[in-house]
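During the no-cost extension, the postdoctoral fellow (Dr. R.K.) reprocessed legacy sequence entries with the updated structure-token encoder. One reprocessed record is reproduced below for audit purposes.
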Amino acid sequence: MELVINGEKQHLELVGTIQDVIEKLGLAGKPVVAEADGKVLTAELWTETAVYPGMKIELVHFVGGG
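Re-encoded structure tokens follow.
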């Protein structure tokens, strides 16, 4: 399925929810903020929010450093 993630088109296979997208991108278990079509989603909504072709998703993850 083709999605627009952080402004770039990406093709991901076997994704049905935001949670699936986060897992496919290797971000599961990390502090992530997700937005789908302009709506900020709490982590509790990731498994309930279905994705569709062309959906615009913004994912922000935090990295430590100094």
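Helices lie at 18-24. The first strand starts at residue 2 and ends at 5. The remaining legacy entries will be reprocessed before the final report is submitted.
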